[in-house]
Amino acid sequence: MAKIIDGKLISQNFRSDLKKKVEALNKKSVNVGLSVVLVGEDDASKIYVKNKIRACEEVGIKSYAYYLPQNISNEEIISLIEEQNSDKNVSGILVQLPLPKHLNEQLILSKIDAKKDVDGLSAENIGNLTLGKDALFACTPSGIIELIKSTGIEIAGKHAVVVGRSNIVGKPMALLLLKENATVTICHSKTQDLKHITEQADILVAAVGKANFITGDMIKKGAVVIDVGMNRINGKLYGDVEFGSANAVASFITPVPGGVGPMTITMLLHNTLKAVSKDR
Asked: What are phi and psi of 95, to 5 degrees?
């Protein structure tokens, strides 16, 4: 039986440390603030924004929420972002995705100052990660690195397999694992004989968005298994990993929910704090 990587507990400990750092900055009259921009009426996005604002309050980060109408133009959103870029009280800017289809997502995100890009998804931040430079790194992959480190297992020298190649998780995950000196393989929908590759992984990160896609027979005995999946079926949440069979062979495993999710928002807070020093 695998040991459970408790994302909630690790997140709480991380946030306690962040709260102390924010309090120390406030005493020096340094503001730590996050602007969150939400366009339209998507229910899931509203919940995500609400959770992010609540997390900010928990650690003492000021939050500025902008709820914009569904039919807003690219130019109007960009104008708001440019205002936030120049606001000294705002250290981080986040545009909640997905945006309505009539908007140019890449154009809008490119207008966020890279020093305030707390999602870590701008071309400049991804480029700096690729070059091995310091940057604001993508939140979910950054949180996963912390979860892996919490096991006490050293990442350096291990074979890490990432299943999924999205810009939000898969690609930056592979780059962060390389930064930690792992040997990294990326798998995706065109990968042939996926099982042959996954069963070689010392660290397996599943980020494909398909419920129970990774089963126990695809996992190396003693592997660390990180499940990024959040698949809702008939009101119930499932990961990308079939937990029962994976739990029998892995050494450590993240549950869904309560694994990767809590750390994603925590790393958003971390990036918002980190951005203060970049902006000064």
From this structure: -105, 115
